[in-house]
Design brief:
Structural class: mainly alpha
Shape: extended
Number of strands: 0
Distance between the termini: 55 Å
Oligomer: single chain
C-alpha cells in the first residue's frame, strides 16, 4: 500500500521543482545571449572560436557531429549538413520515390490569384458542362442539311427453311457459373467403438 505524502514531502518536491525551473531558465538565458553574440560575428570568426573546421572543405568520412551542438548557429549547421548530403552519394541522389519529397509549401512558386475550374463538392463541373455543350454543338453540326435526306438503313431479312424453323434451338454454349460448380459435399465421420 502506498502512504499518502505528508506536507513536508510535497514541500520538498515543490522546492526542487522551483530550483530546476530556475536553473533551466538561467541556462536558456545564457544560451540565448551566447547565440546572439555569435550571430553578430562572421562565419570564419565563429569557426575559430568554436574550434570547428570549415564545412565547405569537409569530405565524406569527416565528423559532422560537431556542428550539431547547441552553440553552433543555424546557418553553420545548415552549411555543414548541405556538405554532408553532397559528399554522400546515397544522400545526394534521391531516387524520386519519396511521397513527400517535394516542397509544396513554396510560396515563391505559387501564382497570385490563381483561377481553377474545381468547385468544392462539385468537382470540375464547369469543365464537364462545357464539354457536353461542345458535344451537342458537334452533333448539331453533323446533322444533314434540310435539302438532304439521311441515308436509309436497310434491314436484311434472313429466310429460314421450314426445317430450320421447326428445329429446336441449340443448347447455349455458355452456362451460368452456378450450374458449372459442383454440388457442395458434407464431411462424414465414423467412430469405431473399439478405439474407445
Amino acid at each position: 500500500m502506498t502512504r499518502e505524502r505528508d506536507f513536508w514531502s510535497r514541500r520538498r518536491e515543490a522546492v526542487e521543482a522551483e530550483a530546476q525551473a530556475a536553473e533551466a531558465s538561467q541556462r536558456a538565458i545564457s544560451e540565448s545571449e551566447e547565440r546572439a553574440a555569435l550571430e553578430s560575428q562572421t562565419d570564419e570568426e565563429i569557426l575559430v572560436k568554436l574550434d570547428l573546421p570549415d564545412p565547405d572543405e569537409m569530405s565524406a568520412g569527416d565528423d559532422f557531429t560537431k556542428f550539431m551542438a547547441k552553440a553552433v548557429p543555424e546557418r553553420l549547421r545548415r552549411r555543414a549538413l548541405r556538405k554532408l548530403w553532397l559528399s554522400n552519394p546515397v544522400l545526394a541522389n534521391v531516387d524520386g520515390l519519396l511521397d513527400y519529397g517535394e516542397d509544396f509549401t513554396d510560396s515563391a512558386m505559387a501564382v497570385a490569384n490563381i483561377q481553377t475550374a474545381y468547385q468544392v463538392g462539385k468537382g470540375m463541373l464547369k469543365h464537364v458542362i462545357e464539354m457536353e455543350r461542345q458535344a451537342e454543338e458537334k452533333e448539331v453540326d453533323e446533322t444533314p442539311d434540310d435539302g438532304e435526306e439521311p441515308d436509309e438503313i436497310v434491314v436484311a431479312e434472313i429466310e429460314t427453311t421450314p426445317s430450320d424453323a421447326d428445329a429446336e434451338p441449340a443448347d447455349e454454349v455458355f452456362t451460368d457459373a452456378e450450374e458449372t460448380l459442383p454440388a457442395p459435399r458434407r464431411m462424414q465421420f465414423t467412430f469405431s467403438e473399439d478405439a474407445a
